[in-house]
Structure to design on (261 residues):
């Protein structure tokens, strides 16, 4: 298994400031179209100025056209999470893990020293996912590869007046983890609002808007939010309010070991 230093962070010099709240529009980050059936937006990894955030190697949106996908390919030393946004994606791996991911499903594949898998859109409509690759924590070296999938209904949910936050990784989530960090998914109702949870003292926040439009208000200032925008936050983050427009808004919140220098 690969043994990368967990806390290593690679961010383009001068890109991220040491400040409590930073907003980056989606077009700050690269969108690639390397082949006719694939489109990806790389917020972390790839050609992004955010190359690595602590143990997170990549966080990207991938859209796969009907009857296409990634055939058999290997991974090693990784914990790979997939959050399904739309459509259906078929997974199969060399441990015998197999199943279809539908909207709201959350999948984890631990590669161990070696695994092969394929991810295919076998349907007539596009599939869209957020995929996140983490370096597996070093003390899990030698653990056999395995696979886990949970539907949205199996994830702990906290409901406020106009938003719902699901616990995906860490805290009280039933999803196993072999990396360091926490992850939540928040759905804000049409014209609703949600307060962003500040990172703990040993964490920074990477927030990724996956769908919808709205605005974020911090320290009396308001910025417009759109699909695939990013917010970075430190433990000094004060009250931050996200408000959705008439179409609603969804975002992922990654709480990772400190990466903002």
């Amino acid at each position: 298994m690969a043994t990368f230093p967990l806390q290593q962070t690679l961010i383009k010099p001068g890109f991220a400031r040491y400040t409590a709240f930073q907003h980056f529009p989606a077009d700050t980050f690269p969108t690639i179209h390397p082949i006719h059936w694939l489109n990806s937006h790389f917020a972390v990894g790839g050609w992004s100025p955010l190359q690595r955030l602590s143990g997170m190697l990549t966080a990207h949106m991938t859209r796969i056209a009907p009857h296409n996908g990634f055939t058999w390919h290997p991974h090693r030393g990784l914990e790979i999470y997939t959050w399904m946004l739309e459509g259906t994606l078929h997974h199969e791996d060399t441990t015998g893990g197999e199943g279809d991911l539908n909207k709201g499903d959350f999948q984890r594949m631990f590669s161990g020293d070696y695994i092969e898998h394929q991810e295919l859109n076998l349907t007539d409509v596009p599939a869209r996912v957020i995929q996140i690759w983490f370096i597996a924590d070093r003390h899990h070296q030698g653990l056999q590869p395995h696979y886990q999938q949970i539907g949205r209904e199996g994830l702990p949910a906290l409901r406020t007046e106009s938003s719902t936050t699901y616990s995906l990784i860490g805290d009280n989530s039933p999803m196993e983890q072999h990396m360091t960090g926490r992850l939540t998914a928040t759905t804000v109702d049409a014209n609703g609002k949600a307060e962003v949870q500040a990172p703990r003292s040993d964490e920074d926040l990477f927030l990724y808007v996956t769908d919808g439009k709205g605005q974020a208000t911090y320290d009396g200032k308001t910025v417009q939010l759109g699909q695939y925008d990013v917010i970075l936050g430190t433990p000094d983050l004060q009250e931050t309010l996200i408000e959705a427009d008439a179409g609603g808004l969804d975002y992922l919140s990654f709480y990772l070991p400190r990466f903002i220098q």
In short: The chain is about 0% helix and 55% strand. The mean pLDDT is 95. The first strand starts at residue 10 and ends at 11. The two ends are 28 Å apart (CA to CA).
